[in-house]
Amino acid sequence: MRKIDAAAARLQSSRALFQCPLCRETMEIEEFSFVCARGHRFDLSKNGYLNLLPHADQSMYSKALFNSREKVSRAGFFDPLLDRITEEILRQVNGPDGLRILDAGCGEGSHLMGILQRMERLRAEDDPFKDAGPTVAVGIDISKEGIHQAASQASSMIWCVADLAALPLKPEQFDVVLNILSPANYDEFNRILKKNGILIKVVPENDYLQEIRRAVYEPSDRPPYLNDPVVRGFCSGMQNCRQERLAYQVSPDPIFLDNILKMTPLTAQQDIEAIREKLLADHKTITAAFRILVGEKKQAESE
């Protein structure tokens, strides 16, 4: 089956999740297009993704950055993080009615794909998860390059180009929203989460990729990274918030290290080769350090 045919079938079965990004009317599939009651039409790409962005792509990230991040993810850099997120999802939500997951700011889709692969493996191996219902997964990013790459790699998810500030999704549709190393919009996340839904957000810790930061900047010029304002914003935007730190060391070979350097904005307009040589001479490992934030949908005061 062609990718566009498979994507149309998935959208047809999940069309109730979506609303028109221009007028918020219900969407219906007409052959290879998503069309609302007022006639706004959005065509599926041959690659099997849907562009629901009413304006031009404003992403600052390039195809090369997404290619590097996909290679880094495939090489295992994010594995402990994805393991922990998967555990959190299955601990919070695991029922016979199935699961709806949105990855908001999914980039090239490697995090969502990795999490779903882990969920499938756990469901096959562990009795408590065998009777869980089907999972519907949607990945959304403002970058057309990122979504194009995601759709090229995996066809079991729904991939959309869209704006996190105006999600083309109906209210109270998702059990879990993921927001991994990406900007957030808590009003929109609360709007689309079900009553008992959760948001899992991941932000870098202060020492994330600290070896690269040291190699790029002189000590006096090194800008500190502080995630405190992001954490406060999360706890203000959600309820019953909790957090944990996850940190580990990765020992990359030169090719792996090249892709780590190319996936981070820290090295934009820098001499990648010089930084790589400095890192290989001065460090044996690279620090991966994250703050994992989990919060529940914020209920109205009257509830």
Question: Could you explain how this protein is built, in words?
Answer:
The protein has 303 residues and is of the alpha/beta class. The protein has one domain: Rossmann fold. It is built from 11 helices and 11 strands. The protein has helices at residues 3-14, 63-74, 79-92, 110-125, 127-130, 144-153, 186-192, 210-216, 228-237, 254-263, 272-282; strands at 27-30, 33-36, 41-43, 50-51, 99-104, 135-141, 158-161, 174-180, 193-204, 239-250, 286-296. An 8-stranded mixed beta sheet has the order 4-7-6-5-8-9-11-10, with helices on both faces. A 3-stranded antiparallel beta sheet has the order 1-2-3, with helices on one face. Helix 2 crosses helix 10 (254-263), helix 3 crosses helix 4 and helix 10 packs across helix 11. The longest helix is centred in the middle third of the chain and has 16 residues, at 110-125. The protein is globular.
Mean pLDDT: 89
Tell me the CATH architecture: 3-Layer(aba) Sandwich
Largest sheet properties: 8 strands, mixed
**The number of domains:** 1
How large a portion of the residues is in β-strands, by DSSP E?
15-25%
CATH class categorisation: Alpha Beta
CATH topology (fold) name: Rossmann fold
Q: Count the beta strands.
A: 11
Count the DSSP helices.
11
SSE run: HEEEEHHEHHEHEEHEHHEHHE
Q: What is the 3D form?
A: globular
Structure keywords:
single chain; alpha/beta; Rossmann fold; 8-stranded mixed beta sheet; 3-stranded antiparallel beta sheet; globular
SSE map:
Blueprint: H1 3-14, E1 27-30, E2 33-36, E3 41-43, E4 50-51, H2 63-74, H3 79-92, E5 99-104, H4 110-125, H5 127-130, E6 135-141, H6 144-153, E7 158-161, E8 174-180, H7 186-192, E9 193-204, H8 210-216, H9 228-237, E10 239-250, H10 254-263, H11 272-282, E11 286-296
Parallel strand pairs: 4-7, 5-6, 5-8, 6-7, 8-9
Antiparallel strand pairs: 1-2, 2-3, 9-11, 10-11
